């Protein structure tokens, strides 16, 4: 089993999910601030399990993608369009969050603008570039979270709300599932199990750490940043949030440019369009974007997950019917001969 290859896939999935909302503590508090840390941990484990599900369904996804039936292609186009739009909205949210956190943490302006421009250019690069970057960024985020949480009063809240778990997963996994589905590689059962476990453990631990750090400041726009200010660790929180935003922005830009390329839109035009949306994102407040856009993305994510679960089942039923029809037709052909 190629461990490095499996880790890279896990980190791509993680990197696509842990954006500004996660790293600021805003979305963790939005979903679990009143329901408890246990809900967050379960949500983390479930997101890891869903990563395995997306990998198992990737073959069926590719089959649907290359179908010759017009009705199937039309359905696939609608699904892809919704995912593309949600990815673009996520891109806008990340740029806004990037500008706000760097200005607050370091007093440096226009970092969101330059980050958006840089990531727009990275979007036209090969997927290997994204893998290498996330292989460095994701472990760094975990280390920084551990440093920050060492100053927090960690506690266990036994509260549990299944609806919050499902809502949080739905809001987050759309990007991760989308990017996993676009991978052209196939993985063995052992590899999928390894990727699933690594991803689940990372999410469960990191959500627990974010919860612990953020709970005291759950009503703030960026709870982790507020915690850091109280403990003279603004630079640590600023770096955590920036890296998380950057990793998600890479995934957003790559998916948008990749989808555009499939309909013959040039990389230069895609990058230019993303730069325009970068300028637009700077006009919006991050907290407002999270509160209004994330729930919508969550509904799309739940729908996409349901589609991913049902797709292999539906294709298996269709294949079974076709085999039965073929078996019935074969004796007739032999009788005629």
Task: Compose a concise summary of this entry.
With 337 residues, the protein is mostly helical. Helices cover 82% and strands 0% of the residues. Helix 6 runs parallel beside helix 11.
How would you characterize this protein structure?
The protein has 13 helices and no strands. The chain has helices at residues 3-17, 20-24, 26-32, 37-65, 70-106, 111-122, 127-149, 162-181, 189-214, 223-230, 234-262, 267-281, 286-336. Helix 1 (3-17) crosses helix 11 (234-262), helix 4 (37-65) packs antiparallel against helix 9 (189-214) and helix 7 runs antiparallel to helix 11.
Can you tell me the CATH architecture? Up-down Bundle
* CATH evolutionary superfamily: Amino acid/polyamine transporter I
Strand content: under 5%
In DSSP terms (H or I, runs of 4 or more residues), the helix count works out at 13
**How would you sum up the global shape?**
globular
Total discrete domains:
1
Could you name the CATH class?
Mainly Alpha
Taking the sheet with the most strands, its summary is: none
What's the topology here?
Layout lengths: L2 H15 L2 H5 L1 H7 L4 H29 L4 H37 L4 H12 L4 H23 L12 H20 L7 H26 L8 H8 L3 H29 L4 H15 L4 H51 L1
Helix pairs in contact: 1-7, 1-8, 1-9, 1-11, 3-8, 3-9, 4-8, 4-9, 4-13, 5-6, 5-11, 5-12, 5-13, 6-11, 6-12, 7-9, 7-11, 8-13, 10-11, 11-12
């Amino acid at each position: 089993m190629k461990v490095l290859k499996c880790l890279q896939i896990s980190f791509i999935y993680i990197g696509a999910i842990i954006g500004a909302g996660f790293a600021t503590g805003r979305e963790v508090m939005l979903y679990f601030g009143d329901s408890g840390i246990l809900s967050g941990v379960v949500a983390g484990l479930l997101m890891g399990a869903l990563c395995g599900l997306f990998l198992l369904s990737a073959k069926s996804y590719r089959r649907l993608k290359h179908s010759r039936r017009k009705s199937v292609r039309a359905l696939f186009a609608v699904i892809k369009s919704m995912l593309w739009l949600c990815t673009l909205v996520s891109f806008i949210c990340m740029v806004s969050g990037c500008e706000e956190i760097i200005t607050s943490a370091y007093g440096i302006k226009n970092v969101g603008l330059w980050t958006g421009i840089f990531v727009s250019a990275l979007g036209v690069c090969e997927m290997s570039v994204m893998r290498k970057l996330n292989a460095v960024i994701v472990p760094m985020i975990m280390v920084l979270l551990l440093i920050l949480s060492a100053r927090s009063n960690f506690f266990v809240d036994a509260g549990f709300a299944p609806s919050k778990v499902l809502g949080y997963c739905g809001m987050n996994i759309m990007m991760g599932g989308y990017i996993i589905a676009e991978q052209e590689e196939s993985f063995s059962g052992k590899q999928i199990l390894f990727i699933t476990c690594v991803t689940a453990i990372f999410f469960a631990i990191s959500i627990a750490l974010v919860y612990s750090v953020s709970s005291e400041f759950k009503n703030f726009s960026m709870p982790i940043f507020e915690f850091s200010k109280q403990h003279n660790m603004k630079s640590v929180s600023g770096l955590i949030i920036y890296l998380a935003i950057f990793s998600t922005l890479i995934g957003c830009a790559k998916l948008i440019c990749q989808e555009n390329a499939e309909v013959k839109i040039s990389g230069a035009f895609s990058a230019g369009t993303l730069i325009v949306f970068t300028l637009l994102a700077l006009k919006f407040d991050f907290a407002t974007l999270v509160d209004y856009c994330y729930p919508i993305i969550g509904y799309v994510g739940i729908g996409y997950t349901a589609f991913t679960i049902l797709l292999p089942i539906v294709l298996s039923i269709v294949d079974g019917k076709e085999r039965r029809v073929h078996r019935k037709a074969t004796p007739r052909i032999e009788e005629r001969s």
